[in-house]
Amino acid sequence: MHFLSNALLILITHMNKQKFLPGALVALLFTISCTKQTVNKAEEPPATTPDTINVTIPVEVKDTITAGDNNNLLLGNPTNALPNSAYPNNYLINQTYYAEAYSRDRGIPVWVSWHLQASDVGTASRQDDFRPYTGLPSGWYQVGASSYNGSASGFDRGHNCPSGDRTSTTAANSTTFYMTNMIPQAAYLNQGPWEGLEDYIRNTLVSTSGEAYIIMGNYGSGGLGRNHTDTVSTLDEGRVAVPKKVWKIAVILPAGNNDLNRITESTTILAVNMPNYDNLYSTNSAGKSAWQNYTTTINDLEADAKLYGVNLDLLSNLNATVKAALKKKKYN
Q1: Can 228 be counted among the known catalytic residues?
Q2: Of 20, 28, 51, 307, whose CB is crowded by the most CB atoms within 10 A?
Q3: 190 is in an annotated binding site
Q4: Which stretches make up the ENPP1-3/EXOG-like endonuclease/phosphodiesterase domain (predicted)?
């Protein structure tokens, strides 16, 4: 089953080159497809040297099929990641409840992508079962629950796909606690504006009548932990990178079907890009809404990431005209 899900994920991530599908493949995809449910800004730290780990975009796999509604990669695969260990720093993992591109050498994801709707939010409790992901290729280091040593480092185990977005079942929530879904995130960033942003998307923009396609990622090297005065570039004896920037985009729609065709130039889009520096943030009420000071456009986000060696192509599955319009929009 793991092989099948990864094989399908390869196909799902590459779109629009062919208009017709073999009948057997169509039937298989139909069988497994998803079913629709209904403060002021602190001065940003100066840029430093680019990442030494660059994302390599493979080009030999051609687009084949179109993803269905609610697929975690419906908007596209931002770095053309593949579930192939030949691409260790752009390695695609299908975690069922989210998809991610993982970097072996950085020990953190490049990005994580997921779909959110009302039925994803239920009564399952927070599992807190932080643990290594044992499905990585043989020989790869598995980041552990204690690798960040948060009490000393000042960095939280910061979720990409949030626990709160996956409370429909215990299994769904537990999957968000794989360490491959974490980054070392400055404690007050994680507990302040980032938590506020997660809550705003889930409870205000989506709530009971909307849905969202969300991608979170990071880039750069060096962050500032809680109660520290010097930046740190790695944890766990150099095996886990501490990113400099943390970003998120969300495309918001009213609940419905045929999502890709419903996204237009007027669709709501939210993008933020925030320094991973604890001293910029607080966890009080104003601090939780301070993400609003860091809204940006996708064009600006992609341009900044490129300065650090990360080439992102967000919203790659959208119509070219719609994509261009949305990438220029800033949420307000």
Answers
A1: no
A2: 51
A3: yes
A4: 95-321
